[in-house]
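ARCHIVE CARD
Drawer: 12
Card no.: 0347
Subject: one protein chain, sequence and derived structure
Cross-reference: see card 0346
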Amino acid sequence: MKNPETTLLIVDDEKNTREGLARALQRTYRVLTAESGPEALRVLQTEPVDLVLSDVRMPEMDGLTLMKRAQSAEPPPVFVLLTAYGTIDAAVEATKAGAYDYLTKPVDLDRLETVLQRALASRKMEVENRRLREQLDQRFGLESIIGQSPQIRELQETIRQVAPSRATVLIEGESGTGKELVARALHQLSPRSRGPFIAVHCAALSPTLLESELFGHERGAFTGAVARHTGRFEAADGGTLFLDEIGEIAAGVQVKILRALEEHRFERVGGSDTVEVDVRLIAATNRNLPQMVAEGRFREDLYYRLNVVTIVLPPLRERAEDIPLLVAHFLQEFSAENEKPTPVLSPEAMDMMLTYPWPGNVRELRNAIERMVVLAKGDRLTVRDLPPALREHAQSRTGGAKATAEDGRPSAFSLEETERRMILRALEAVQGNRARAAEQLGISRRTLHRKLNEYGLRNVAPAGRRGRRAHAS
């Protein structure tokens, strides 16, 4: 069956072999020919070639040299080599250097067709893998850092500069500002992009579990350790390890991380064998690490080892001009995900989004847009479709019924007061379930706990729960 979309290049200095193979294969493929390596390179510069069928031993340039030089094509063609009996060793070496396979002369045409089909299938898979990697680069590269504000442009330039280096990076920013996106962009734009990107959310694990998760453990290291476990440092070898919320790590684990960073080696929990790794570390925090160092809650030496390059992410309220771009992006994303037409946001609704302080930052905005798309009843989103927190904030700004101080006078709430009221409303809406309240607010549960402490709300229960407890007593 003719496949004109697949192009083969036959390279052989023997005219009879070259033309005989061309006649046999042109019934199935689009066939080009070249009588030397230099001529083949000229063909490759002007023609999209899928597979090169080349003799190994040729004057001017042998087949192995041709294969090496052809790798600059994008994507490079797959090579199948032809060899006489006396050059089989060279052909075997060529396969180790990247050739798909080799065939001996005279060529068995049935065997040739089988090898060509397999080689082309292999190349198709490689091309598809490249396409998927490019999509990954687009998703987690700079394209994922959405915005045109001066802060975002500066951030993008910093990422471009820092990504190619081996330097440890500390990303600082409020919860929901996109610290993991920045870490992934640094990885995707680095020479390590073909290696693994391993993320660990440190606050989600106890100190004992975190140590095992980071460094692995040997069988019998502790109760329940029934087999050897490979840790995240080991899994990230050759790539990037991202430690989120590193300010939550216990002192004992901090010591082990410091040693792993300085010596590129460690021992698994319960083991004595040294494991060597090549890992680039990126850490992130929403805490004030210098203050924690001053208070003795974070090791000073580890802080300075992490703080080689610091990237500070601006909160969304400080780059409101990026909100329309983010809204448009999330509307398209969630409309496609839910197989709905992309709705239009009314100017009034956009105004409310622009003036809302977004305490949960981009994560909160993303959650809000997803909610609106899922619940949308038409192709236009209005003020009525906004989450309650946004509408109530707008009422407070315009002196509505909910924007009054205790003495009855209109009151414009500060960011802190707005945050405090939002947290109380969220807790009340979910009957005090803090995990669900954090999810509704677009923040982590640990951040919610910290906010409760800051605003003196640690022991405050929603009105509904207080009422039930009073009734029960």
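Annotation on reverse: The two ends are 84 Å apart (CA to CA). Residues 285 and 403 are 34 Å apart (CA to CA).
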